[in-house]
Amino acid sequence: MTEEEAYAQVVAELAARDLRPGLWGKAMAESLGNDSVAKSIYLKLRAEQILVEHHAIFAARRRQEGAEREARAGWTPLPPRLEWMFRYPKVVIGVSIVVILLVFLFGR
Fold first, then answer.
1. Quick check: 108 pLDDT over 70?
2. Domain limits of the chain?
3. Which of 26, 38, 69, 80 is the most exposed place for a label (fewest CB within 10 A)?
4. Are 23 and 49 contacting, i.e. CB atoms less than 8 angstroms apart?
């Protein structure tokens, strides 16, 4: 959903008088009771709320699709004690080199 679509939805809500009471109350409080300013504030707040909700739904859907894809592929998450190896690959490579050198030098 684009920002323009979110604003269009809010304009339609305002025209139908389908307002969120809590958000309208906040807009009225911020406008100090001025109805036209409250509509403007409500429009901005509600559009932001719609976009946040849309992005949250989209992100949850992508996480679900990713989990389903991983399940189909037979992928299982690493145990927590091994996750650090993928977060810090340079450390793993460095430690591996040191161990190989120690075995080579003193392993005889």
1. no
2. 1-76, 77-108
3. 80
4. yes
